[in-house]
Amino acid sequence: MAAAKMMIVEDDAALSELIQWHFEREGFDVRVTPDGEEALLLAAEETPDIVLLDWMIEGLSGLEVCRRLRRTAPTANVPVIMLTARGEEEDRIRGLETGADDYVTKPFSPRELVARVAAVLRRIRPALAGESLYYADIEMDTVAHKVKRDGKPIALGPTEFRLLRHLLEHPGWVFSRERLLDAVWGHDSDIEVRTVDVHIRRLRQAINAHGGTDIIRTVRSAGYALDADRRL
Amino acid sequence: MAAAKMMIVEDDAALSELIQWHFEREGFDVRVTPDGEEALLLAAEETPDIVLLDWMIEGLSGLEVCRRLRRTAPTANVPVIMLTARGEEEDRIRGLETGADDYVTKPFSPRELVARVAAVLRRIRPALAGESLYYADIEMDTVAHKVKRDGKPIALGPTEFRLLRHLLEHPGWVFSRERLLDAVWGHDSDIEVRTVDVHIRRLRQAINAHGGTDIIRTVRSAGYALDADRRL
DNA sequence: CTTTAATGTCATAAATCGATCATGATCTGT
DNA sequence: ACAGATCATGATCGATTTATGACATTAAAG
Question: How confident is the model over A144-192, as pLDDT tens digits?
Fold first, then answer.
């Protein structure tokens, strides 16, 4: 799973550690800073996928950090969730109007924060919220129709794409050529079963083009399977 | 900007009227129903831009309505804000995990609800919130109907403008010609799907007129997508 | 009313894909 | 080691999909 990059801007060390722990457990790649200025620098450097921003921080106010994030090109579309002790309606509304995507009032439960982050990410980067398929070092974004291996993009034709998707949906399973024809070509295709071989080959070629082991296993007299651990 | 269509699903008539009044004052085109089943029918008919959904309604539960909206093609991406009397963390999390985009606890102030709706729309359909859209070196002012690339103004016909706007709202996503017809021409247009090709071409021509790489990606047998990073 | 711009459709060219076959390699059981 | 079966691979040619230019019709502007 490609980790989503999260930036936490929070000057209560105990709290930020707690949050960090929870999100790292969820597989996020978390960066923490207590300082507004530093947050802006960090964000400019390595654009995060989502920002958790405390309203009351040293230096710049959270509101100001949010505003500046919005104004700078690479971070203009990064979702921001405000964390705050204030429960006043007036403040909530100001936060939202400044461009925050959501607003969570302290004290909050980590689980709810995780759920809200997931809801926001589901919108912005479906790839980060389960619309993607992963296996070993392969990553398929089904929404953008892109495939990567080890971070490098792989070009696939339509049939190879569908074939790989089906394999990725059931990693490890061995599929007979007949079942692959059903699943990938459709139940009513009167296609030569051996044609599957050819597409498997093309898929292998594309996937292994830039090195790496062959993760498609041929199971003699049975079919094919996705399998990174080939030691039989 | 064409008024954003809102659907309110709420069986407390007094409350739904109050909300309706507030949003109509904000320029929304509001449709109200107290019933879950009817809500689904209505939504399928004329896809709303945002749904306010009471958790406790007659017939289907709000949660179930949300789930079904998410499962059906045209409404799968419509943002949903849950309204509820329950303040329990457990419920909030279930709501968010079901696919709700936000969660507001009764009693709430209309102003805050308006702010939250604006925040959700800004994130999901920035064009409806009167925001400008940016992607790579493209900049679209949805209010003034002006488009620039690399600072230089680009002339677009109305259809190309709507097409580009839709692509800009979901950069990276691959849309089939059918979905583009729905989104750009309307659900009930009986237009030849291949016509999309022609408008894509016209859009490309206009955008690339003054140089620069083609940021519209053709995905064979799938559709088109906005994509500055074409290294497939 | 004339002129201009926009739009949908079609025909054709160009690009890409994909099914099949022929051949050589590899495996399996004996 | 051998025969038969199974699989890998490269090439090919037709089929499918997309790009493009032209045109007729309609709507908008002057």
Answer: 999 999 889 999 999 999 999 999 999 989 999 999 999 999 887 888 8
B158 is near strand D: CB distance < 7 Å: no
Contacts of A102 in chain B (CB under 8 A): 102, 119
Q: Which of A12-21, B16-25, B100-109 has the lowest mean pLDDT?
A: B100-109
pLDDT tens digits for B128-183? 777 788 888 898 998 889 999 988 999 999 999 999 999 998 888 999 999 999 88
CA B54, CA B33: separation in Å to the nearest integer?
A: 11
Q: Quick one: three-class SS letters along A53-71?
A: EECCCECCCHHHHHHHHHH
C-alpha to C-alpha distance for B211 and B198, rounded to whole angstroms = 20
Q: Do A96 and B115 touch (CB under 8 A)?
A: yes
Please tell me which residue of chain B has the smallest CA distance to A107: B89
Is B215:B168 a contact under the CB 8 Å cutoff?
no
Q: What are phi and psi of A100, to 5 degrees?
A: -65, 150
Chain A residue numbers with beta carbons less than 8 Å from the beta carbon of B123 are 79, 101, 120, 123-124
Distance in angstroms (rounded) separating the CA atoms of residues A7 and A9: 7
Q: Give the whole-angstrom CA distance, residue B175 versus residue B173.
A: 6
Q: What are the CA-CA distances from residue A3 to residues A6, A110, A133, B92, B94 (Å)?
A: 9, 19, 13, 25, 24
Q: Report the predicted TM-score, pTM, of the whole model to 2 decimal places.
A: 0.81
Q: Which nucleotide is nearest to A156 (CA to C1')?
A: C17
d(CA A50, CA A69): 11
Q: Which residue has the higher pLDDT, B96 or A113?
A: A113
| Ramachandran bin of A153, using left for φ above 0, alpha for ψ from -120 to 50, beta for the remaining angles | beta
Q: Which residue is closest to B111 within chain A, CA to CA?
A: A93
Domains of chain A with bracketed CATH: 5-129 (3.40.50.2300), 132-226 (1.10.10.10)
In this complex, the nucleotide whose C1' atom is nearest to the CA atom of residue B199 is C7
